[in-house]
Amino acid sequence: MKNLYLLLLLSFLLASCGASRKPKNTTIIGDTKVSVTAKKASKIVTYAKSFEGTRYKYGGVDKRGMDCSGLVYTSFKKENIALPRISRDMATKGIKIKLHDTEEGDLLFFQTNKNHRVINHVGLVVENHRGEIKFIHSTTSRGVIISSLDENYWKSAFVEVRRII
After folding, report:
1. CATH of domain 35-163
2. Tens digits of per-residue pLDDT, 115-137?
């Protein structure tokens, strides 16, 4: 009987040890806009740019290789903002905005596979200069690069833009 109590106590302690704890100083993004400054958006973009030239790696989140959602996830995480890890899940966070209202730090979502009508790609806006939107993302062929939404491929695959911060 004593062993049973000890086993139950040990099970309780193991089950409650930090597995579900949220990191300290982390903002969890829900369905509403989180009020932070443009400075934070700039820091996120600057960090994302530090990965330019990094090769593509499915599921990657560091300099050894990175996919599109990994780039966005890692960049926001650096500023203590938690996002889902997958682009289609990211597309459910923040607020949907009009394309002409796009600013640095917003997220662009794309459907690049016309056979599957789901969001499967994400990019982070680095600038909107006179309506030309440039974004950083990771492509399977060229790794982490900056592209323009004016490019025909990205313009035709574009779905929506969302503001997280």
Report:
1. 3.90.1720.10
2. 888 999 999 999 999 999 999 99
